[in-house]
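Sample log: DUF4760 domain-containing protein.
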Amino acid sequence: MQLTETLALADLTAVISVGIAAIVAVTGYQNTRHSARQTFDNFTLRFIETENADPHLYAGRQWLVENSADPQRDFALYADIGRFFAQHGQAEGITLTRGADGLVASYTVADDPAAQQTLQSWLKGREHIRAVVESRNTAAEAVLNGLLEENAYRLVRRRAVLADFRMLADYTAARRAGDAGYAEAFVRLAQRWEKE
């Protein structure tokens, strides 16, 4: 009888031990999952803070907003320096060499002050546009590849991303005509968010 009671007590102890181990394992799993989710959310928020502190993105967005108010402004011109010069009456101030794909391979600008001023205007605008597109494309790649938590990022950035996309739609289309992969993630994410 005592042997049976000892075995029953050992079995009961084993069952209780297994039950405690299962509870510890489940609790540990839930805590780890919660901690991982919290880390993922914190990383997304830190990424957003980094964007907020980016002076190039800020300056680029300011320039876009200021220049989008001008109905004569065509951001697509910044995709082709030859068209930009022609639009500004300086077609004779630039010599272009185009590649087989029709894109500008190289250019030489005359020493004429008006041509130089047009060049500086194009370079400044292109740099601002490039800063915005590169920043938005980097973030979009991170979102699309699951490196940023999409719901949190969308909640904070949806309006700004879509505004930038709309302002730069002609520019990105012009660039994508020669390079189909240009800003692909930015375009895909913005188009997806527009449908929501």
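Observation: The chain has seven helices and two strands.
Observation: The first helix runs from residue 2 to 52.
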